[in-house]
């Protein structure tokens, strides 16, 4: 089934079949929508180019790693598992623009809350474990972004402070994001 945006540049959207919908036509639809939204939403164009529409089409090993990492969410504490289910709508595989896979990179974007963009850390002893921890990390960012849209959490968010996570000076809002993401990762790791 296809839905269409009601604007002058109609973008056919393919309905998702779930959080791990890696059908090439769905990922291509998401890629096209985000590509056309880069200017409107002030998105980082590099994020769009990293969406890998073919990574899982002929790569059963990668698909299995994403699926095992997703299944491991069942081991998380019930509150964290529920939050993931309530917040994350899509896990989107990413790669580099040159076609090489990123090694364990992940990101979220404040214009695309509910999406977790991630790649597999193939060099890790247990890549599904590393990917699962990335899911928790990005969930922390997504949750904090939702809170940021609903209320002011930080006064003087651009003020620079020492970030214990990065061990350097950063804007307070970025240091806060790092602390929240780390807290979510710790809660996840305690149960794995």
Chart the SSEs and their pairings.
Layout: E1 2-4, E2 12-14, H1 24-41, H2 45-49, H3 60-71, H4 78-87, E3 90-93, E4 106-107, E5 115-118, H5 127-150, E6 160-163, E7 168-171, H6 172-189
Parallel strand pairs: 3-5
Antiparallel strand pairs: 1-2, 4-5, 6-7
Helix pairs in contact: 3-5, 4-5, 5-6
**Mean pLDDT over the full residue set:** 80
The helix/strand class is alpha+beta
Write down the overall geometry. globular
Sketch the topology as an H/E string, one letter per element. EEHHHHEEEHEEH
Q: Helix share of residues?
A: 40-55%
What can you see in these coordinates?
- By secondary structure, the protein is of the alpha+beta class.
- The chain is 45% helix and 12% strand.
- The chain contains six helices and seven strands, in the order ββααααβββαββα.
- It has helices at 24-41, 45-49, 60-71, 78-87, 127-150, 172-189, and strands spanning 2-4, 12-14, 90-93, 106-107, 115-118, 160-163, 168-171.
- The strands form three sheets. Strands 3-5-4 form a three-stranded mixed β-sheet, covered by helices on one side. A two-stranded antiparallel sheet has the order 1-2.
- Strand 4 (106-107) and strand 5 form a beta hairpin.
- Helix 4 (78-87) packs across helix 5 (127-150) and helix 5 crosses helix 6.
